[in-house]
What we know:
- About 40% of the residues lie in helices and about 15% in strands.
- The chain has helices at about 25-30, 60-70, 100-105, 110-130, 155-160, 165-180, 185-200, 245-250, 260-265, 270-285, and strands at about 10, 30-35, 40-45, 50-55, 80-85, 90-95, 100, 205-210, 220, 230, 235-240.
- The strands form three sheets. The chain has a six-stranded antiparallel β-sheet.
- Helix 4 packs across helix 9 (about 260-265), helix 8 (about 245-250) packs antiparallel against helix 9 (about 260-265) and helix 8 crosses helix 10.
- The longest helix is centred in the middle third of the chain and has 20 residues, at about 110-130.
- This is Kinase-like domain-containing protein.
Amino acid sequence: xxxxxxxxxxxxxxxxxxxxxxxxxxxxxxxxxxxxxxxxxxxxxxxxxxxxxxxxxxxxxxxxxxxxxxxxxxxxxxxxxxxxxxxxxxxxxxxxxxxxxxxxxxxxxxxxxxxxxxxxxxxxxxxxxxxxxxxxxxxxxxxxxxxxxxxxxxxxxxxxxxxxxxxxxxxxxxxxxxxxxxxxxxxxxxxxxxxxxxxxxxxxxxxxxxxxxxxxxxxxxxxxxxxxxxxxxxxxxxxxxxxxxxxxxxxxxxxxxxxxxxxxxxxxxxxxxxxxxxxxxxxxxx
Length: 286
């Protein structure tokens, strides 16, 4: 049986490519790869990339360790996961891979190059879905779901759920919290029929390990090999089998012809995507 890694997590010193950076060195780095105040990602020296912040979840690093252990899918090596009490921040220290994000390259690629990348991604996504499931719906190692749709939802509904029905209720509850005023007649008229729709659509889907944020901004092309490297595992977990496709399609509207390639990478779930499209529309509307 798979065993959850103990936190804090550090690889043995002999496996490090260079001396491990101190917290002070990490915080002093101005070589930003992502300059988001709550969760900056910086390059430290020649070998390390570090994501840190109060809002950074070490669960993201655990997802990467899990995928690295149970598949051949290319993800950056994780060297450390730890919380620093002095700064009150979480730190994910990982491998620096020279490359470019696919969203930077996509418009410059030929049809054959896009096809090659799509075939690589299809292989990796199929392998991800073949990892044996524990049977529940939620975050890794029984942790809460971190997907944006569940943020702000009460813990009992974001916790790992034994059935897809309870998982879907957490999704519906998250929408209701975003709409805020349950007593408003138009909200009530909309929410309760929507739950009936969720019950009819979100059923019968296997629990599969899911990236949950697959779009050109979470895919790198390795400069040395030209192969894809998948990053951005912060939303990953055990989700219904339609979730990867629906999430990818919802993100695809920002990237030219990317939606045309998603069916080459993932099995399609049209009814489920339609439901999630309406879910997102209502979320943004209110």
